Amino acid sequence: VQGDRQTVLAAVRLDGRALAHAEPAFRGDREVVLAAVQNFGCALAFAHEPLRADYAVVRAAVEQDGMALFHAASDLCAHRGVVLAAVSQCGGALMRAAPALRDDREVVLTAVSQDGGALEHASARLCSD
Known about the structure:
This protein is mainly alpha-helical. The protein has helices spanning 5-14, 24-27, 30-39, 49-52, 55-64, 80-89, 105-114, 124-127. The chain folds into 2 domains: 1-52, no CATH class; 74-129, no CATH class. This is DUF4116 domain-containing protein.
């Protein structure tokens, strides 16, 4: 997606995947990336690295698609609120959660209630309960 900022914003609001084709400057533009991930959470993969560590951007991405957690900075994979939002939307996102959160009863129960298969990513301690 080439062109001016308003054109790019309109494109990513219609289809967040358009961020993949945006000029590099737009992939580092917080407003553009936020609009993209609100439409298609995994558009986070196309964002510049600093935005993958931006709480609001990542939170919006995982609320739209929990699997967007796989594209988030590691620090946010250890953030309880972000991980809870991700596993509420897609239990399989538990796989990307920090080890401490895979041992958190509420996080694991939320993930498993969304996708029973998420249990395989829970800590051994919780699996034995």
